[in-house]
Amino acid sequence: MGTQFWWFYDVIAAAVILICVYISGRKGFLKSAFSAIVCIAALIASMGASSASAQPLYENTIRSGNVKKLEKSWDRDTFTQKYAAYLESMGYSIKVSGEKLDKIFDGGENYDDALCKYVNNVNARKVEKDEAVLREKIREGYAVVTADMIAEPLNKFAAETAAEKIRGGMSMEEFIPLLRDAEGVHKAAVYAADNFTAEAYCTQFRLIVFIVMYIAVVLIGLAMINSFTRNREDGVQGAGSHAAGGFIGLAMGAVMVFAAAAAVRLWTIMGSNEMLFFNNEAIDKTIIFKYFYDFTLNM
Questions:
Q1: CA torsion, points 155, 161, 162, 166, in degrees to nearest 10?
Q2: Quick check: 270 pLDDT over 90?
Q3: DSSP readout, 98-120?
Q4: What is the pLDDT of residue 230?
Q5: Residues 246 and 21: beta-carbon distance below 8 Å
Q6: Cα–Cα distances in Å, from 273 out to 156, 159, 211, 236, 256?
């Protein structure tokens, strides 16, 4: 991924703000105030609508398809096989028995305890002096394996969202038994779609609805203002009116940059954070733009 173009974000943000200041300054206080009201109202309305509609949109469009994709991609042994490979990759020089892992995951006991005990006894030696370190690696395995199981049928962003939820403390005590269900993995796919990946898709829907609605409301609002003020004379405007208009332009520019940041974030997500220009590493290096971008994370 490239980070050499990080400065471009700041240049565009500064340009947008300066253009808004210039245009608003020329318009004067009154017209700029009306335009600012439209932009701010569009921002508030779009954020509210996007938050309210994201979950219903996900549930009524993508969710059922995601369940089918996950169910088709998994079988009863998928998690066990991938987790065995993960344990063998930890650098402890152990050979993991799939049958032993099956018994652990089917046993109904505390998985962390059972796995710690198993790993420490594979070669009849304790692999870590500090058991907390081993437990942390075991829990990281849940995140890595679950993400790997989700990434192929869905996408990287959904997989990373699932991994972060597990790292954040989400229990595997409900999910693993569903994966091991003798009747199939349908219930596990439903659980993953509702608990691991829903947030990722709701985030995308929030951004899409916000961007589309914001643009529509701003265009309609500004068109209405222009139609009302087209034939009206403002008279001679003093320096104070132009200065006040320019100050209002700062606020309008900030709102415009925020809307642009939402679009950039959506593009970054759709590109799985792997595109040359649209990636988080480049944005993190910016001086101004990153603050607008970070605010979109709370939408």
A1: 160
A2: no
A3: HHHHHHHHHH-S-HHHHHHHHHH
A4: 65
A5: yes
A6: 9, 13, 19, 51, 23
Q: Nearest to residue 225, comparing CAs of 37, 18, 46?
A: 37
Could you please report the per-residue DSSP string of 216-253?
A: HHHHHHHHHHHHHHTT-------HHHHHHHHHHHHHHH
Q: Where in 31-186 does DSSP place strands (E)?
A: none
Q: Give 232: exposed, middle or buried? Use CB within 10 Å, 0-12, 13-18, 19+.
A: exposed
Residue type, position 3, single letter: T
Q: How far is CA 76 from each of CA 118, 148, 185, rounded to the nearest angstrom? A: 21, 16, 7
- The predicted pLDDT at position 290 comes to 92
* Mean of all residue pLDDT scores within the chain: 90
pLDDT tens-digit readout, 138-174 = 999 999 999 999 999 999 999 999 999 999 999 899 9
Residue 109: is its pLDDT beyond 80? Answer: no
C-alpha radius of gyration, the chain, whole number: 26
260 to 207, 218, 291: CA distances (angstroms): 11, 13, 12
**Is residue 120 a contact partner of residue 97, using CB atoms and an 8 Å limit?**
no
- Mean pLDDT for 96-114 is 89
Q: Are 179 and 73 in contact (CB under 8 A)?
A: no
Reported pTM: 0.85
